[in-house]
Amino acid sequence: MGNQKQKWTPEEEDALLAGVAKHGAGKWKNILKDPEFSPSLILRSNIDLKDKWRNLSSSITSAQVTQEKMKNPMIKKSVRYAAPSLSLPSRTPPDATVMDDTKTQERYNTLIFEALLTMKDPNGSDVGAIHNFIQQRIEEPVPHNFKRLLAGRLRSLVSLGKLEKTENGFKIKNVTLLEIKTPSGLATSSETEDDAVHITAYTVADAENKSFLAAEAVKEAERVSKIAEETESMLLLVKEINEQCLRGEVVHLA
DNA sequence: CCTGGGGGTAGGG
DNA sequence: CCCTACCCCCAGG
């Protein structure tokens, strides 16, 4: 009765994204408790964080294909429906064709973005690293065709302009960008070590592309320069180890 | 207690 | 009109 809609500010989204990258999605209370983010999120509850993240994740996919997914008369609209929690689709679906479950796609994309957000590799993360991250992120499901599905989703996201292909793998696309926010206090140093500039800034300015990804690029750059490089190198190390493990090599830790 | 999921609704194309 | 962004409620862990 008393509450009107309070739109999320970029600062709040920034804090949420950074919090997810730091603590992981699902640790809403932890993010809220973190002194790094609490000032920005003082007005928000952990439930708010969860809802916002859900909306954010949905908006990554959604739209665009809107009418395509209404092909099935059985499925009402789009939105979210039937949810096997965090379980991935059943193993080896009989029809290898397009089993386009919107819900499933959104889950994949959410996990992919979460992976890329966490191990923010400026050179891009390869499929193996992403696969391994997701595999660790969720416990149970390990579909055999998952790598294939993952590769498919990555290709799809690239063609949608959400991701871009790099030499080493994939990264979140940054276009249309950085000037929107322009952190006013960026006086720290002149480095701006991010490679954002070299990307061809061809205007993908689709409606649904909005500034979500751009904001993410900003947030990524901010975090990288603001916080640690130790984390970066550690993540790289972990990534290497992961790749080695994927090749079946035996890894010894010092 | 905290989290995930369902669902309602206002507001903007 | 439909779609998106927020918010509230409820069940399970």
Architecture overview:
The protein is mainly alpha-helical and 254 residues long. It has helices spanning 10-23, 28-33, 46-60, 102-118, 127-137, 146-159, 212-226, 230-246; strands spanning 163-165, 170-172. The chain has a two-stranded antiparallel ribbon. Strand 1 (163-165) and strand 2 form a beta hairpin. Helix 1 packs across helix 7 and helix 4 (102-118) crosses helix 5. The longest helix is centred in the middle third of the chain and has 17 residues, at 102-118. The chain is elongated, with a radius of gyration of 19 Å. The protein starts with 9 loop residues before the first helix and ends in an 8-residue tail after the last helix. Mean pLDDT is 63; it is low at 63-100, 175-215 and 221-239. It binds a DNA duplex (13 and 13 nucleotides) through helix 3.
In short:
It is found in: Chromosome; Nucleus, Nucleolus. With 254 residues, this protein is mainly alpha-helical.
What is the secondary structure topology, with strand pairs?
Layout: H1 10-23, H2 28-33, H3 46-60, H4 102-118, H5 127-137, H6 146-159, E1 163-165, E2 170-172, H7 212-226, H8 230-246
Antiparallel strand pairs: 1-2
Helix pairs in contact: 1-7, 4-5, 4-6
This protein binds a DNA duplex (13 and 13 nucleotides) through helix 3.
GO molecular function: double-stranded telomeric DNA binding
Subcellular location: Chromosome; Nucleus, Nucleolus
Protein name: MYB transcription factor
